[in-house]
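Support request, priority: normal
Reporter: lab tech (M.K.)
Component: structure prediction queue

Hi team, I submitted a job for CBS domain-containing protein from Haloferax namakaokahaiae yesterday, and the status page still shows it as pending. I've pasted the exact input below so you can check whether something in the sequence is tripping the parser. The sequence length should be 264 residues. Please let me know if I need to resubmit or if it's stuck on your end.
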Amino acid sequence: MELDDVRVDAYMTTGVETVHPDAWVTDVVDRLKAGPQYGGLPVVDDDDHLLGFVGAIDLLEVDGSERVESVMSRDLVVVRPEMTVKNAARVIFRTGHQFLPVVDDERTLLGLFSNGDAVRSQIERTTPSKVQSTREMLERTHSISISVTEREIRVPSLIPTQREVYGDELEGRKYELQNGLAEPLIVVSYGAETLLVDGHHRALAARQLDIERMVAHVLTVSPDEVGELGLRKMARLGGLESLADIEVNDYLQHPLIEKTEPAQ
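Reply from support: The job had stalled in the queue. We restarted it manually and it finished. Here are the results:
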């Protein structure tokens, strides 16, 4: 399964603590003091239908005798369980939300997908399978045997093989790099050149953060064995000689993202 196929429901947090709209504000304050993971509580009815969210900011200067339904936020961004992790992560990093409620067609709360879940999905789905598939593709295409090592490479020397990246995902990769969470790149060492195969967002984020070196899985191909490597030809035909040639595009809204209507 490719990363683009991984769904939100594979990584969302279930069994989320919730609150009823009839609860007293004072009770919510006590629960928030106990430190819920998301800094607030989803508000659901008796059938677990999502009605809103109540957080600390909603309770500022609010009398404890008020009901939750009178102070909760009703204008939420929600996603469906079948949305891909990659697209949900883009929404999180683009909008600045710390989490997204996951609901079904009936607006039943299924779980929460947080920025932490987005990072976890990337870290837990490590690169060995992608490295192996890249290795097999190159060996099959060029009828050669390829060695793989893991070592640091110079970011400024990378030649990309992908023309564009998403701006919001780029911000997410900066977060990962700044917090030591980024997984290794996959590159091909081809003589004096280093071709970037996987990790264009991470590499470009590193460049923007002035990070000189990153860990990578390095597949070594000798120019003596392969006269013209297909990946090198792809980069040449695309006019890609350095990370500066990559275009950064904004993310277009995904059809599975929706705004909830205030509950009646």
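The chain has seven helices and 13 strands. The chain has two domains: 3-122, 126-248. Let us know if anything else looks off. Ticket resolved.
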